[in-house]
Fold each of these.
Amino acid sequence: MALPEENNKFEPDEYNPEEMKEEMLLQYPPKVARKRAKQIVINKFGSDGEVGDISPNVRTVPGLIGQRGCCYAGCKGVVLGPTRDIINITHGPIGCGFYSWLTRRNQTDASTTPDNHNFMTYCFSTDMQDEQIIFGGEKKLALAIQEAYDNFHPKAIAVFSTCPVGLIGDDIHTVCRNMKEKLGINVFGFSCEGYKGVSQSAGHHIANNGIFTHVVGTDDTEHDGKYKINLLGEYNIGGDAFEIERIFNKCGITQVSSFSGNSSIDKFANAHVADLNLIMCHRSINYVAEMMETKYGLPWIKINFIGANATAKSLRKIAQYFGDEELIAKVEEVIAEEMPAVKQSIEEVRPRTEGKRAMLFVGGSRAHHYQELFAELGMKTLSAGYEFAHRDDYEGRRVLPDIKVDADSRNIEELDVKPDPLKYNPRKSEAEIAKLAEAGLKMSEYEGMMPDMDSGSMVIDDISQRESELLIESFKPDIYCAGIKEKYTVQKNGIPMKQLHSYDYGGPYAGFKGAVNFYNEIDRMVNSKIWKYLKAPWQAHPELAAAYASD
Amino acid sequence: MSDDYTSTTNACKLCKPIGACLAFKGVEGAVPFLHGSQGCATYMRRYIISHFREPMDIASSSLGEKNAIFGGGANLKQGIKNVTTKYGAKMIGIATTCLTETIGDDVPSIIKQFRDEEKALFESDNSPLLVNVSTPSYGGTHMEGFHDAVKVLVDQIATEYGKDESINLLPGFVSPADIRYLKELLSDFNLEGVVLPDISESLDGPALLDYQKISEGGTPLSKIRSMGKARATIEFGRTIFGNLTAGKLLDSRFGVKNYSLGMPVGLRESDEFFSVLEEISGCKSPEKHVLERGRLIDSFVDSHKYIFGCKAVVYGEEDLVVGLTSFLAEMGVQPVLCASGGKSKKLNKEITAVTKGLVDLPIVRDGVDFYDIGEEVAELKPDLLIGHSKGYSLAKKYGIPLMRVGFPIHDRIGGQRVLHLGYRGAQALLDDLVNLVIEKKQNDSPVGYSYM
């Protein structure tokens, strides 16, 4: 059952994007304007169908209030944060640990691991003081690890460095190694000081490297179950992972591990026994997928479970990869079962959302994925951009060979991974992969956000608050999607604002049931009557008030 | 019970620069600015916003690895310039972070250089005032950051000598609702007052027809300039770290008499505050407030049967804990633990003073986290928890009702509108607290009484 076809032609009505871009750049000094000009792109398709260049993943200009977080946030907050049974110790003064204390609304189900450990509601910190800044913090870190072990007996402890740690030269990795030996559990560290890289993206990479080095491949247990996959780059915000797991179960697909929504460290350790990696958020997790492919022969495909059509498409891709008639039939059966409820909801909601206009400035994948849901509602995406993505997330992996590596990225280690002499096992032969590609299923492929956006829409990387104000003033979108920092600024402008990091207390929005939740949420938001009441009656009709006064 | 854990598990304090940003946000036309990695600004913005549900801009000098090695001066200068030209800030409140304190950036001299280099920028009428405070988060909590920022605002802006009829009110970190109440009170006493900082509108603004780059409200800079002329200063907070507070600074530099009071939470602390207002203004307390006091006493009598003998655990910022403890004691609630992540070394003395003669001296613990508080709660088995949202996991674990006050409140709406101060605030707290106890009793009853 197909959903209504989306309309691919974006026709800017009263607004000219070229003029908008010019206006945005005018406010800057020449040097900043030149830099921003390469990050504000009007989407165009060349004769070969390829999109234009964009220059993301460069430093934010000081003093321009933006959206980005830091390396520590990407490493501890995003990638490792959603794993329930690792004790994450922040090595640093108290702030960083406090601010990343379960603020992303990651959910987890601790009843599925035998020990029921869930440390996600805790915030562990070495709470460095003057004394450690002067004399070093290694001793305090070792004691903190010991205390965490004594009080909670976790299976693993991870340590995350904040800015001062790198500056004073604490060697967290040696402390971790020593404590690992002493305690007999896995203890490992991440040098994810906030000043590293240009955004949280650096932290994702460091997290990927750390998990791959210290955890993945340490448990070779083979489990029962057919069609074994790992789900990568899904963080179970608002219960998304639960909905995706429900669909996998229904289809008979076995999820070996998840990086890292609703995850457990034991599953990371065993991830290499799966037969396919599914990448949801390409930006934050492609490194682990690449390394697993090189070391264990496990291929990856890009999928997306945001949007009912996208979910169906992703399930079909998985079935196509395994090529098993039983799975192919089962997937079709599940899609046929799930779609009527979706379609019914769309029929109800779409008359009220059709033609409305959205903007999305979020993440390294979400700004792309959520356009699917808006399209299903008949809504147009006028403008979108990422906070911390790289060129491949915008233009597709075809540009990978052309990406210039600057000093900030060069400082983030690229691991030298080789095929494992014992465990390397290519799941598909080159011939099989070529055959799948011919049939339309390309391995290791992500085409990026821009090819999916309309010609003439604005693509803006690392948008600044001033730029978003200009956009809002001129375009007056019906809904604006970003994070909590932007939420109230946008709403003061009378525009409904949906948080796509934390989902505004809502969710799940993934899968079939999630799509229906999202339709209802957007319907509620874009059709809210509250904005009408902004003006009091005497402001809306001054002549009335004057008449009363003269009575 | 171990009280010598080295690490901090579930902190009961926030970091120093966030306090400075909150204080700077209470100055008219101000943009807080963090000199450090951009993550600090992002984290603190998102945290402040989750409580106030209002825009909260904090600019950043966005230092990278290179700057961490070679110094962040150039970024700081570029950042100040961009904030000046893009946002039209009247004041930029620059706070340092662990990063820039550890590498030893000398912010005052960078600012001085910048002024010399950018003469044109500082000659115009719209040029911003630059205020800077040192806030390494390895040296104190958000409250030290808050009070240090208030102190530098006074130190660096209040330069005018002379005498006028105004009074200065330094309320500390209280809610926008509290500030609105204090301003009403000053007006009712016919006092011309400067409340510093004033977040009553800048962090609790109305829905608008037109967006403003910098939110309205905040203490006007012209008023801060003339704080040295005031008749008197009233400064809330008995546990402010160190000896030189903003109020004392105004006293020693300008001879403005400083009345140092506790945060006026509950009856007695409010009585003391009203007495000072009467003394300074030469007016009797206005009838409206006398009536509020009368109703408060009346409700103490009405509610006593529900809450007498209840045991409460109070946690949060030290001055708020002192105020709440004083209030609980006069209601007949027994505080059993008074805890804070702060460490002014004054908490024990102040708690002793406010509980004396009314209830047993509770356990007082400073510099603790929720792991420590949790161990105490397990032993003490209190009937009530009073503090911010971070106590929720204990409330859930032990099935104890939690009354949310202070900051941060991010699991309820209206944190910015919780009124803590004065007779009116005490009345609101009392009703909430007693109803929480009644609700628990009602829910726990197998009968389903609707007449309690």
Amino acid sequence: MTSVIEVDGLTKRLGAQRAVDGVSFSVSQGSVFGFLGPNGAGKTTTIRIIVGLIYPDAGSFSLLGEHKSSRLHRVLPRVGSFIEGPGYVPYLSARQNLDRFLAAEGVHRRGRAPLIANALEAVGLEMVMDKPVGRYSLGMRQRLGLAQALLGDRDLYILDEPTNGLDPSGMREVRRLIGELASLGKTVFISTHLLSEAEQICSHVAFMSQGRLIKTGELGELRSGYPQRLRVVGSPIGRLRALMGPSARSEGSSVLVDCDPKDGPQLLKSLLADGIEVSEFSWITPSLEDIFIAEVGEGFDVR
Amino acid sequence: MFVEELKRIFRRPRNLIILGLIALVPILLGVVVRFASHGGPRGGGPAFFAEITQNAIFLPLAALASMETLILPLAASIIAGDSVAGDAANGSLRYLLVRRVSRSRIIHAKIVAALVYTLALSLVIAAVGLGAGSILFPHHQVVTLSGLSISFVHGVIEALLAALVVGASIFSVTMVGIAVSTFTSSSLAATSIAVTVAIASEVLDAIPQLEKIRPILLSNYWSAFINIFRSPVLTGPIYKDLLEQLGWMAVFYLLAVFNFSQRDITA
């Protein structure tokens, strides 16, 4: 599959700190790629390099096939970006702010109004489009930032923490928007520290920590590399736990143990044969959070 | 991009208030001289101050002379300091850059727009001063500083020319502000530095022992516009003024363009 973003050995030092340290990954066309990691992991710095806002100290990258920072302007019209929060002139309205971006991009005056209306409608700001942005709430500003990224028809959307500051319904709306973009065959590169959010929308993920890329791959493949967890509810619970082996642990009224799914039927048979009254016997797929903690360790800012 | 930058400047309430307040100065000056001082000002004060009651033409010129030393550099510095730093601070700079707008186009649009605003400041003073002067004072033939008479229309043209020269004399301060603005996300810091440079230049200009360095001080020829009102016009000091402004502008233009093209946009 064609790669829309290729990053190879990217390194960037900000002050004394190595913000990005030899990061390499690739984003396939049509994927929803989750760029995951705690705050300060180097996600935004990597994104800023990819879109040409900052220059790398070492390594290379390509965006939609363009390798040179100085020539990124050739492909940037095909990219919708939302980077580290919204950017706006506070005394201009949402409409005037978006018009400014489109005019700077060279979009003809007559072509701007429908693009602006569509983008503001997509994020639910059409009713307040003429109000100065300085009077917007935090969530409204975040929506305006997303509207800016959605202006026009793009092949790739780079969204850095798009749900920051949004209420639960706003977060659901963003997930729906990303789903719609993916269904249209667009590539979405989304950076977030919210693993539960990423789990719901991403087809591929990369884990970042302290400037380094820890792991990357297709989410299903990553999951298959981790043990499935069996959850059994039955009584008597003491005997049930003893029968399920030394690694089994209780959690409320259930007993959990990591085991191979193909061993499941045999285990169930033996439990029943030993007189255990089994009321639930289910498999728990490892969550993205489980995988992340297994790869990166505890201390992740999970919400 | 240039038009968008002009819109950004002229739609900002603060910038319009600055223009409005600056427009008030020649009106207040005219009213005070006309009604509050019996027989008109006698000597002293900025250039053309003593001549205000003689002809409408002298009101804008006196206003320009009195505002050139502090208010105009301050107003120009506010816009220049905000030019890049303001957009960097509010985040809109990064969204301009990720929309295929080249860094060169952005910085050049910002430079030209800030220079246009600087010219607008002095032209507003001239236009309002001429209007107020025409209401408050006689508007007949003008006696120039050389004692010769010129028509009122000729005088209006020379007053507008003087405003252009005064505006251009502040260009160096504007360019210093823009250059500093490319280094920071703080508009206030960039504005403060540009104003400090202007005031420092005027202070150094006033110290007799520093006569040798005067020709390179950006404020050294700020009063050159007075020579427009000589017959014939004394062009030497005006050319020196413009040449000096060009020199300062060239240095800070290169600094602004170089730094902006190399700088990491982390704000």
